[in-house]
Amino acid sequence: MPPIRDKFTIHSRAVVCQDVELKGDITIGPGTVVHPKATIFAIVGPIVIGSGCIIEEAAIIVNRRKEVMRVGDNNLFEIGCRVECPSVGNFNTISTRARVHHTVRISNYCVIGAACLVVPTDDETLDDYTSIFGPAAERRIWSGRGRIQEADLRLKHAEYLREMLPKFNRLRRGDGA
Fold first, then answer.
1. Could you give the angle at the alpha carbon of 135 between the alpha carbons of 115 and 103, nearest 5°?
2. Three-class HEC string of 26-74
3. Cα separation, 47 vs 71, whole angstroms
4. Which of 19, 114, 153, 158 holds its CA 20 to 30 A away from the CA of 3?
5. What confidence score (pLDDT) does residue 142 get?
6. For residue 155, which phi and psi values (nearest 5 degrees)?
């Protein structure tokens, strides 16, 4: 297997801390915030992260497939989560220490609860508004009530981080976009 060639495209309005571990072909969109100690590995195929995402400490995003891994806009990857799925829609929350296997595709407005393990044997696409919770990874479809407030809160959270992180951390610059 040939060595992984690093190519980072970080939008000028993205905030990516210096001590983030990046490997492979990675594109980070405008307004996205990547906390220190996060890990993004494009082992085989590239990873494209949309705008307004928040990737917290110790979060791991890995692409082991040849196809492009697309992460939509305004997603929240909380502390210590691990995501290997080939596509993530918009406005999703992957909670603390949750793990999502590469056989899953996440639609929009999904919530993977804290410490949930989502590892189906066959390829699976989560429907919009799916919530996975509890130690047995139970599922429920969310009614969508409160999604506008959730989106507003997420935007404020990202805005606050874009303002505060550069004050206390060195930032990484990419080729620009």
1. 65
2. EEECCCCEECCCCEEEECCCCEEECCCCEECCCCEEEECCCCCEEECCC
3. 8
4. 19
5. 92
6. -65, -40
pLDDT of res. 1: 60
**Distance (Å, whole) CA 55 – CA 172:** 15
Contact 9, 27 (CB under 8 A): yes
Model confidence at 9, in pLDDT bands (50, 70, 90)? very high
For the ranges 61-75, 99-113, 142-156, which has the lowest average pLDDT? 142-156
Strand partners, 17: 171
Alpha helices, DSSP H, located in 19-62: none
**Whole-prediction pTM:** 0.93
How many angstroms separate the CA atoms of 138 and 149, rounded?
25
Number of neighbours of residue 66 by Cβ within 10 angstroms: 9
Burial class (CB in 10 A: 0-12, 13-18, 19+), 119: middle
In the chain, pLDDT over 90 holds for what percent of residues? Answer: 90
119, 121, 123, 127: CA torsion to nearest 10: -50
Sequence-ordered list of residues with C-beta below 8 angstroms from that of 168, at least 6 positions apart, any chain: none
Whole-angstrom distance, CA of residue 114 vs CA of residue 66: 29
CB under 8 Å to 33, separation ≥6 — which residues?
A: 14, 15, 16, 53, 54, 55, 158, 161, 162, 165
